[in-house]
Amino acid sequence: MNKQVVYQTKGQRAVDGAGVRLVRVLGNQTTDIYDPFLMLDAFDSTNPRDYEAGFPMHPHRGIETISFISKGQMIHRDHLGTEAAVYSGEAQWLTAGSGAQHEEMPGGERLLGTQLWLNIPGKDKMKADPAYHSISNDEIQEFPLEGGKLRLVTGQYKDAKGWQGKYIPVDFYDIHLEPNAKVEIPAREGWSSFLFTLLGDVTIEGEYVSEKTAAKLGDGDKVVLKAGEKGGEFLFYSAPRLNEPVAWYGPIVMNTRDELIQAFDELEAGTFIKKTADYDNA
Q1: Edge-to-edge, what's the strand order for the sheet holding 202-204?
Q2: What is the dihedral sign for C-alpha 217, 223, 224, 229?
Q3: Regarding predicted confidence, which is higher, 164 or 276?
Q4: Which stretches of 167-271 are assigned E, i.e. beta strand?
Q5: pLDDT at 261 (0 to 100)
Q6: pLDDT band per the 50, 70, 90 thresholds, residue 281
Q7: CB of 132 within 8 A of CB of 76?
Q8: Could you give the CA distance from residue 19 to residue 106 in angstroms, rounded to a whole number?
């Protein structure tokens, strides 16, 4: 059965970090619809002044962040002094878990990409050690499509397996299509999935989706995409729903208001960081 579009969320221009101009697509008003995906920001600029100030050191708890850089670069630094960089076509996965402090500094002549926040199950939020993984181009398998290609950033595509996080499995495909190309992409039934139009527009089962829009998909075992006249780059994300309450303020996402209050009390008291981080492949 083909997946159909059940909801669309058009991105809106916003400013975050130290003045980074971006497009905010998903936020605290869309958590139930897109569960377990929380926030989605997109970056698309050829003016370094829009992004070079970056995202200075800040805390996270209760989530994982998946940053994808289609064009440009992103340098990650954390509270342990670790430094790692990803470049065009690569991704980075940060497990904040029980608490992490990090910064992200973008660069390059053009910045094009996304950052997605992924929720962590409540039972794991305070048990999860902070961890970082760079997903380099040599880890990303590429598959030809009729009129394009699919890059397996994380998860599984048909029988191929890519890097995967520990707490929620995520299938993340970077799909490039030529003008008017039509392709069929297999997808897992029962999982929560959406497509983001990073560049260009697409039609899914007769429904038009404009650029910089998240299209929430219904159930099915495949999705049929038809690119617009300019072709484009489309990001497909899929993961199991959590169906848990979300208590979210700023960079902290927990299950209850009391847990949020505790987190900010610990930030003020200097007791926020709980566990030693494990930064593999940094």
Answers
A1: 182-186, 222-227, 202-204, 207-209
A2: positive
A3: 164
A4: 171-177, 182-186, 192-199, 202-204, 207-209, 213-217, 222-227, 232-239, 247-249, 252-254
A5: 97
A6: very low
A7: yes
A8: 12
- Residue the block writes with tokens 């992409």: 185
Q: Would the CA dihedral through 102, 135, 236, 174 be positive or negative?
A: positive
| Phi and psi at residue 69, to the nearest 5° | -115, 105
Residue 198 and residue 196: Cα distance in Å, rounded?
6
- Kind of pairing, strands 278-280 and 131-135? parallel
pLDDT band at 78 (very low <50, low <70, confident <90, very high): confident
Instruction: Residue 265: count other Cβ atoms within 10 Å of its Cβ.
Output: 11
Task: Give the list of residues 6+ apart from residue 263 with CB closer than 8 angstroms, or none.
Answer: 61, 62, 99, 252, 254, 272
What pairs with residue 248 in β-bridges? 253
Q: For residue 177, what are the β-bridge partners?
A: 148, 232
pLDDT at 81 over 80: no
Q: Convert the pLDDT of each residue in 86-117 to its tens digit.
A: 999 999 999 999 999 999 999 999 999 999 99
Q: Which residues make Cβ contacts (< 8 Å) with residue 147, sequence separation at least 6?
A: 177, 178, 180, 181, 182, 183, 227
Look up the pTM and report it: 0.95
Question: What's the pLDDT at 38?
Answer: 98
